[in-house]
Design goal:
heterodimer; A: mainly alpha; MetI-like fold; 12 helices; globular; B: about 325 residues; 10 helices
């Protein structure tokens, strides 16, 4: 039951968000066709363009047509370039996911390892890690990216500073271009998650059941591994879901740092050109991924923690 | 209790909560993203670990430094921060130009000083907007359960789907890039964190005897909200505001870096990083200085939030 309600709530959020996105981007001062064509377009041309893109029809119809298209993977034709954006958006989404998914995995694994290690050993190590995490949290992701370029690409010459290659054309080049942006994204999110893993595990370490596990003969490591991590995972998973949303938006910025042709760099260009069809499509994709991931986290939460299933 | 199987008695900090809140209802408000210390939510058992006691002081000093810089920049900067001079392009740091000059020959130190104003204004106004909307929503949801609470939670769900930076990019598309649209967007984007913390605090306060006493004394719920609830959630709110301020600084910096924030010629730290990035191999310091300014400000607000939370939990 809980799962059904969670899915329903998630669908409601995506639906409301789609209305907000559609409405906001139609609020653009001035007529969308006029904005796209520029101020010196003749009234006839503007009228023809309005008709061609269906802008002269009722807003509700326009919305239904748009959302119907989005649901079937058709994002519409850009008023600015006159191109159908569907294929471009799908390609760009794939590139962004190439950055985001490895970054999430690295961040989660790294945070679990470092956080567990830190929770089990207090004292100087803990303090050093505290300070390091605090510093890493304060550094904007784009600055970290720039610093990595400075050290690894410019000073050491190990990896290309920017650009992108298609995996099928050149797997090696693809990987070499992937490493720095993924590391940048993973480092920032990893720092946040490490703090949660550590705090959550420290909380668990003081509990009776862990003492009981020790008293029946398990070593400290075994006790933490078998009983600690699962209990510590619940709050961490929740945070990880929320963090993924900021990772997606973080990717928007990081793509600009490394000149990666993903959704983010397209979004920035589209905003600059006031290409509303493209902006709408990208924002809808980002918001939908965010909400769906949060739903997934909630469902996984139920698997890890039997009490919330009920 | 058995030690054999996983004993699910340690769900996480805080009082038992319904699954739909999944951790977003408690003080640390993961919705707020970066920075919040996860272990010290109100209602948590005291953490065995003690954080460095200097956090509050260090944070206060850093934030005070930024405020002081902003104030001084109003009356004095070494050079006019927007005066370009083609003969002085891309100079290394020296006695005349402490932090060097940028690609237009403008003094970087002066731009950093003047840039602190935008950073602070965005932080303060964004937090103000988030608090003005989020606090009443949170108190309302905490005091009036039922459909009012359900509506507030759906609204925060909706806002949570739009991270502050994404909303700011959308606003830049709709209203044009600018400091005002950035502040409004960041403010709206951080409403959920404030609203959820306020609601969680309100729920705790509402269980207290003095609320029942005030209600039975015939006070209306609005009077109870102002007299009893608001003063008692101020502590967690101040912590959340510090965290929100650090988020706002980061969001503004990223937005300006993308060229969608504060428009030229007003100096902005994020834009300075972006403008100087193409000269990274020749003048790396001019990229690092504005970057460090952003990082130190964010660090200041984060430490301030951590330190305040610590005091709150102890007292």
């Amino acid at each position: 039951m809980t799962a059904v309600r969670a899915v329903a709530r998630c669908l409601l959020t995506v639906f409301l968000a789609s209305i907000v996105i559609f409405a906001l981007l139609r609020l653009v001062p001035g007529d969308p066709a006029q904005v796209a064509l520029g101020v010196d377009a003749t009234p006839d041309l503007v009228e023809a363009t309005r008709h061609r893109f269906g802008l002269d029809r009722p807003l509700v119809l326009q919305y239904l047509e748009w959302i119907g298209g989005v649901l079937t993977g058709h994002f519409g034709t850009s008023f600015v370039t006159g191109q159908d954006m569907s294929a471009i958006l799908r390609d760009r989404t794939a590139v962004t996911l190439w950055l985001v998914i490895p970054a999430v995995l690295i961040a989660l694994l790294g945070a679990t390892a470092v956080g567990t290690w830190a929770a089990m050993r207090r004292g100087v190590t803990g303090t050093v890690l505290d300070v390091a995490a605090q510093l890493l949290l304060a550094v904007p992701a784009f600055l970290l990216g720039v610093v990595l370029v400075m050290v690894i690409s410019l000073a050491l010459g190990w990896l290309p500073p920017s650009g992108w290659e298609v995996p099928v054309d050149s797997p090696g080049g693809f990987l070499r271009h992937l490493i720095l942006p993924v590391l940048t994204l993973a480092a920032v999110q990893g720092a946040i998650l490490t703090r949660y893993v550590r705090a959550s595990l420290e909380d668990v370490l003081g509990r009776d059941y862990l003492r009981l596990a020790r008293s029946k003969g398990l070593t400290r490591g075994q006790a933490v591994f078998r009983h600690g991590l699962r209990n510590a995972a619940v709050p961490v998973l929740t945070v990880a879901g929320v963090e993924l949303a900021s990772l997606l938006v973080g990717a928007v910025v990081i793509e600009s740092v490394f000149d990666v042709p993903g959704l983010g760099s397209l979004l920035v260009t589209a905003v600059g050109e006031r290409d509303m069809v493209t902006v709408q499509g990208i924002v809808m994709v980002l918001v939908a991924i965010t909400v769906i991931v949060n739903l997934a986290v909630e469902l996984v939460h139920g698997l890890v923690d039997p009490r919330v299933r009920a | 209790m058995s030690g054999e199987s996983t004993v699910p008695d340690a769900a996480g900090p805080g009082p038992a909560r319904p699954s739909r809140d999944a951790g977003v209802g408690q003080g640390a408000a993961p919705g707020a993203g970066r920075g919040p210390a996860p272990d010290a939510t109100p209602g948590t058992e005291p953490s065995p670990r003690r954080r460095a006691p200097g956090a509050l002081i260090a944070g206060a000093v850093l934030v005070a430094l930024v405020v002081l810089t902003a104030l001084v920049s109003l009356v004095w900067t070494p050079y006019d921060p927007v005066a370009a001079d083609a003969s002085q392009r891309l100079l290394s740091p020296s006695g005349a130009h402490w932090f060097g000059t940028d690609k237009f020959g403008r003094d970087v130190a002066s731009q950093l000083m003047a840039g602190s104003r935008i950073t602070l204004v965005v932080a303060v106004v964004s937090v103000g907007i988030a608090a003005v909307i989020g606090v009443p929503l949170g108190i309302l949801a905490g005091m009036r359960r039922g459909w009012v609470e359900a509506v507030v939670l759906r609204v925060t769900d909706l806002l949570l789907a739009f991270p502050a930076l994404l909303l700011a990019i959308v606003f830049a598309a709709v209203f044009g890039a600018g400091t005002v649209s950035a502040m409004v967007a960041i403010g709206l984007g951080t409403v959920p964190g404030i609203a959820r913390v306020t609601r969680a605090g309100t729920l705790t306060v509402m269980q207290q005897d003095y609320i029942a006493a005030a209600r039975s004394g015939g006070r209306g719920w609005a009077a109870v909200a102002v007299r009893h609830v608001l003063p008692n959630v101020t502590g967690v709110l101040v912590v959340q505001c510090a965290v929100t301020a650090s988020l706002a600084v980061l969001a503004e910096a990223a937005l300006s870096y993308l060229g969608l924030g504060t428009p030229p010629p007003d100096p902005s730290w994020g834009r300075l990083v972006q403008e100087m990035q193409q000269f990274l191999s020749v003048r790396p310091l001019q990229v690092l200085f504005p970057g460090a300014a952003i990082a130190l400000t964010v660090l200041g607000f984060n430490l301030l939030g951590d330190g305040l939370r610590q005091r709150l939990n102890r007292g």
